[in-house]
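Appendix B. Chain record.
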Amino acid sequence: MEDHKPERVYLCFLLDNAFGTFQDFRRVEYNPVEDADFGGEDVSPVIRYFRQAKGAVEYPAPSEDVWRRFRERLDALGVFEWKSRPIAGENEDVLDWMPPSWNIQITYPDRAIDIKGPIDELPPHGTGKPGLEFRQFCEAVSELIGGHEFGQDIL
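Structure tokens predicted for this chain:
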């Protein structure tokens, strides 16, 4: 059976930033290499889902079938061709300031994407209102975390 698991997934939405404090923050992480050796013990890979208001939750890594569907959806949506958008003030030397934004990092042996942009310029079209492709991408991520919402607050 072909392995459809990515080497790494990092997805983040920073929402409603006010005075250096995030009013809401969503993050999904999957990094089996970091999980493989934790404190000298072998640890099974997990999906970490963090919501600022509720804290972190860990879910068992999805099944091979869920990973396969996720990769198929990424390919069908053209996610690996999506582009970053400039973030105003991104290069400023201010430690506690970050505008509302998104970040998508997904790495497979054969393809990878590492993009980011302001929350009002969502991929792939750079619009404030999410297009069909972005909504379907968020649905695919929701499936990875057992059907829990991801991105619905900006849809």
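Further analysis of this model is presented in Appendix C.
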